[in-house]
Design brief:
Layout (H helix, E strand, L loop, with lengths): L1 H22 L7 H10 L5 E3 L6 E3 L3 H8 L4 H7 L4 H11 L24 H11 L1 H8 L5 H8 L12 H11 L2 H11 L1
Antiparallel strand pairs: 1-2
């Protein structure tokens, strides 16, 4: 009986998520919360189709996204772009095990590991190397970029005007006297 109750719970939640993804507009706001629930409670492996006795099984999260939700990984990430917790959950469940080479995740486009200056990359690196800061980012205390800077993974960047006078004013604001002295020496 427990397995049947579990399947029923998974079916109700996954069907609500699938409807929100497929029918959009008014239901899109529920997607991040539902995707977090589906991933955290591991509800994506199987579900009973609405008004049917057919049970669908998904061997991978990629198959669940494509067949169960009728969407793609990039589209799902886009629907969850404002919810760092949902993006992080999606990244965790789609992350390749270390023994599988990059890009091998079920041959689905868009599942390579995030790289560069992306928020997804910062979240993954913080989750792996600095879980304390990762928690603060998910709680909304820091942006992924600010978390990466605090962890030492990135350096703070500033844009400088092309006008020399404006650039000098900006540099005085950003740099200490010691840094300005080093800059003068480097410019000579």
């Amino acid at each position: 009986m427990i397995a049947e109750e579990s399947l029923q719970r998974a079916s109700v939640t996954v069907n609500a998520l699938a409807q929100a993804v497929r029918h959009g507009s008014t239901r899109l706001a529920s997607v991040p919360g539902l995707i977090k629930q589906v991933i955290e409670e591991d509800l994506w492996h199987e579900r009973q189709l609405p008004r049917s006795s057919i049970i669908e099984h998904y061997a991978s999260f990629a198959a669940f996204i494509a067949d169960g939700l009728g969407t793609t990984l990039p589209q799902l990430q886009d629907l969850c772009r404002r919810d760092r917790g949902a993006l992080d959950a999606i990244d965790q469940v789609t992350q390749n095990p270390p023994s599988i080479h990059r890009g091998a995740f079920n041959n689905v486009k868009g599942t390579d590991a995030p790289v560069g200056n992306s928020s997804a990359y910062a979240l993954r690196k913080l989750r792996k190397d600095r879980p304390d800061i990762h928690k603060r980012v998910l709680a909304g205390e820091l942006s992924p970029n600010a978390g990466a800077i605090e962890a030492g993974f990135r350096q703070r960047k500033h844009q400088i005007d092309h006008d020399p006078i404006k650039a000098a004013k900006q540099l005085r604001r950003y740099f200490t006297e010691t840094e300005l002295h080093e800059l003068r020496k480097a410019l000579e």
